Amino acid sequence: MSDRDTPSSWLGAYLNAHLAGATAGMELARRAARGNRDAEHGPRLSLLARDIAADRRSLVQLMRSLGVRVRHHRIFAGWLRGKAAWLKPSAGVLTRSPLRDLIELETLYLGIQGMAAGWRVLLAAAANGAPVDEESLRVLHDRANNELAVAEDLRIQAGTRAFTRD
To answer: N or C: which end of the chain has fewer CB within 10 A?
Structure first.
């Protein structure tokens, strides 16, 4: 087994992949919050964006505590994915549309699901001896579940706005 074929190297790769996704999600959430600042649902979206950024910081702290090296090229790729999300279909590139809101919220929802899935995997691994703190992971998993509920509510509202206006 080479140094690249060990559980600790796989854990590092796994956490870096989640960090790239968290970076993309953070960028998307921030942009969605800025774009909806004056909307009725703007404050809830801003809170969601702050929570996603906090999750990303928690992930970086977890990586540091495990001695996992942050792969900056992966973070940059995640940042680019988050910035490129504005290319999704909408009424116009420079304007917001109800469809853009819906697609952004669905993308955020799926990203949060991915983070929650990652926390569940790490919780299972911790229960079997992986060197990660179970209590911290439980807190992160619970927070992801709360974020999912908020994102789902906002997503349904966005779909209603998109498909019932004339």
So the answer is: C
